[in-house]
Amino acid sequence: MEKPLTGNFRSDKQAVSLEDYERAGGYQGLHKALTIAPADVGELVKKSGLRGRGGAGFPTGMKWSFVPMGKDAPHPKYLVVNADEMEPGTFKDRALMERDPHQLIEGVIVAAYAIEADIAYIFLRGEYVCSHDRLERALAEAKTKNYVGHNILGSGYNLEIHLHVSAGRYICGEETALLNALEGKRAHPRTKPPFPQVSGLFGKPTIVQNVETLCNVHHIVKNGPDWFRGLSKTEDGGTKLYGVSGKVKKPGLWELPMGTPMREILEDHAGGMRDGLHFRGLLPGGASTDFLIEEHLDTPMDYGNVQKAGSRLGTGTMVVLDDKTCPVGMVWNLEHFFAQESCGWCTPCWSGLSWTEKILLAMEQGKGSRQDLDTLTFQTKFLAPGNTFCAFAPGAVEPLQSALKYFGDDFRKHVDEQRCPWK
Question: I need a surface site. Which of 70, 81, 106, 209 has the fewest CB within 10 A?
Fold first, then answer.
């Protein structure tokens, strides 16, 4: 199968050099894009069916279509790369940036051209030191070849790209909180509307896009939307980086056709569960998605089918639960993380997650009660969409609400036996 995103990866895990990238066809998508009108580049992406790979899955071409275009559009316009990868269990963007940094840079330039952006920022997670060093070097190389800067390749198009190291908060996955952080403010989400496409960074039109999403863009321009759709097993176009973590034989990351079944990823690529362990469930798209169980393993991993099964594709990086690990302890660990990462902007989020985490810890310590089970169920509704300022808290309680559904006996044992039965 074709692997446009990882096909250039070196076996020694070093970054692809500019020379090797160009030899493999790199920057040809940019050359082609610069011969096409910006709006037509956006139309190619729209026809490809590319959806955001950061978690929400919003159609990329449609998102770009909301940006004001033409001579009367406000400037400067911005493209911001969300490279602040903080979803627990997720490491796909790091791999793309460390192993093939020019691929991301080419995708940034083509996407920026499509929306007539003047300036691009790569908002990078602070802990990603290797990504920083390799992107910094690749950016310098790209400038020497006039892929970035003034009058790119003689086209008349100008673009600055800046690498910004994030202070690191999970809430920066919410695009308007990221924009506030980039402006030097506290990372609080903004009221919408106005949406960033119209009034984003410094009040100007802005597109915020995930690393993996942008890495697809120039391949689409180079090879066409039909080629991209043909890579997938389902109606969602392209390939997808799928990851597996947990007690499997071969945890890792693989580029596979969009819509590859969970069972194939778990058993064929991750090697199945370690000896002596059995599968109990998984979070299909990182920590902020609902658990799925054995009966869901034949579900194609795409946006629509995972949603029908009761969860979300999210980042496409599974976290696996085995039969020797306490699900209550696992959920407590996740809610502890989310309670710490709440930005504190709205009361249901900071207060609700804090109480949720304390109740789960009490259960793990043998201090839970039957009433606590009702309180936890209430919290999953109290923090549901529509009750909080952004999507942070609703995502945070997804593993809890599904754990109560599928592993309810484990919660009741903690209460009835006044201890964690797994210890």
Answer: 70
Contact 243, 318 (CB under 8 A): yes
Instruction: Give the separation between CA 395 and CA 124, rounded to whole angstroms.
Output: 22
User: Where does a domain end: 283, 298, 322?
Assistant: 322
Same structural domain, 103 and 200: yes
Task: Using the CB atoms, write b or e for 80-106: b if 16+ within 10 Å.
Answer: bbbbbbbbbbbbbbbbbbbbbbbbbbb
CATH of the domain at 374: 1.20.1440.230
Structural domain range at position 41? 18-231
Task: Say whether both 404 and 334 belong to one domain.
Answer: yes
**243, 253 in Cβ contact below 8 A?**
yes
- pLDDT over threshold 90, residue 199: yes
Query: What pLDDT, on the 0 to 100 scale, is given for residue 55?
Result: 80
Q: Are residues 251 and 140 in the same domain?
A: no
Q: What is the largest CA-CA distance in the chain?
A: 73
Among 166, 199, 231, which residue terminates a domain? Answer: 231
**Alpha-helical segments (H) within 145-279:** 175-182, 211-223, 225-230, 262-263
Strand order of the sheet with strand 160-165?
A: 160-165, 119-124, 78-83, 206-210
Residue 128 lies in a domain: yes
Q: How many distinct structural domains can be found in the chain?
A: 3
Closest by Cα among 373, 337, 371 to 357:
337
pLDDT band of 56, cuts 50, 70, 90:
confident
In terms of Cα–Cα distance, which of 367, 101, 366, 87 is closest to 211?
101
Is 25 a domain residue?
yes
Beta strand 252-257 with 279-283: parallel, antiparallel or unpaired?
Answer: unpaired
